[in-house]
Amino acid sequence: MKLDIRHTFACTPQRFWEMYWDDALDEMMRESSKLQRELVEERTEGEIAVRRLRFIPDKELPAAAARLVGAKKLIYEQENRYDAARGVLDWRMLPTVLSGKLDAAGSLRVEPRGEADCEQVVTGDIRVNVPFIGGQIERAVLAEVQRGWDRAAETYRAWLTRFGS
User: What is the 3-state secondary structure (H, E, C) of 92-144?
Assistant: First the structure.
């Protein structure tokens, strides 16, 4: 399934990336999210900033989805690789369930919209290779990913209000 999530913010792309890497944003994300968000690793590889995060939702999956994936929660890690020269963050989801059967990856870029606004564009693919029920699992994962980015956008807006755009 294709992923295409867009949010507009009242800031320039440069300010967006400043916000994205700000420690205060990380704290706000932890406080406002409906999941635990842990920094697992942070390093650089040449010009690429690599950050690995672990996400543990507070909410359990619906019973039917939990039976399909074999776990009560969709716990996963995400590796982000930010290339400042390209202005693109490539991400890959590293699931703790359905290992080898769930592949989710894509990119995040920020495009200018006028002189003072920008649009965050998250694109990617989510594929579940499980006979008969793969599509159902893909839809459940896609819905959770969409909710996560929508919650993040709310926090980004709160940060911009608090710290200025």
Answer: EEEECCCCCCEEEEEEEEEEEECCCEEEEEEEEEEEECCCCCHHHHHHHHHHH
